[in-house]
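Running log. JK asked me to keep both predictions on one page so they can be read side by side. First protein, sequence followed by its tokens:
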Amino acid sequence: MSITKKLYTCGSFKFLREIEELEEKLRREGIQYAVSKRPDNRGMRGCFERIDDADLVYIVNPSGYVERSVSVDIGYAYARGKPIYATHVIDDPPVMNLLAGVLTYERLIELLKQ
């Protein structure tokens, strides 16, 4: 089965282990994805390009934490009409209201395969 939906995932760099865990699951399932794990010289513009190229945005945010740059990603994705999901409820209610919901990695993969 060919999976045509493309995912952009991001989160605080302090959650790198969790992001890499998700990457491994996505690779095994053959899902196309882009991830922000390391700063690059394009800064936020690079993130915006990856969001534009994605069908769906997924925030890795254990304990509900999102840093400022991830909040910017969320706002940009929302303005571009991208569905946004997270691993946990975001501590900031106005930002949380921009999300379509909270999904486990497994439920995210099921959604991408639909």
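And the second, directly underneath as requested:
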Amino acid sequence: MAVPTDETDSESVASGALGFGRAAPLAGKTKPMIPTRQNSALERAVDAAGEAWALDWSNTLHGEGRSVSGGWPGTLSEARSRVAACVAKRFGVARRVSAEELEMLARRAYAAARKAWLAHADLAVEE
């Protein structure tokens, strides 16, 4: 099975946050490196990247004549890679994320992708 590798333009997939709750703060977490307003933009971009990731998978499966069904096939490792690419594309090389931020954003992208996948997947059990 071919794994989607092309980065879909996340801005064309979604325009805005999906309304996911914020992650619990980490103990001893330092102040974010960028202002809250920009964090919201980053979170929206990551949500859109997650939705684009689900669309990439869906398109790949349809292209192979397969149905979009079952559980979300993505991994957190893939989510980290997509988030890193999203941050670089959207905010440039000057914007660096800490390991903690990357993990939080990767989990957010994964959740957005999984939610989009499950919303469109055929969850009926085939006999």
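Observation for JK regarding the second prediction: Residues 33-120 form one domain.
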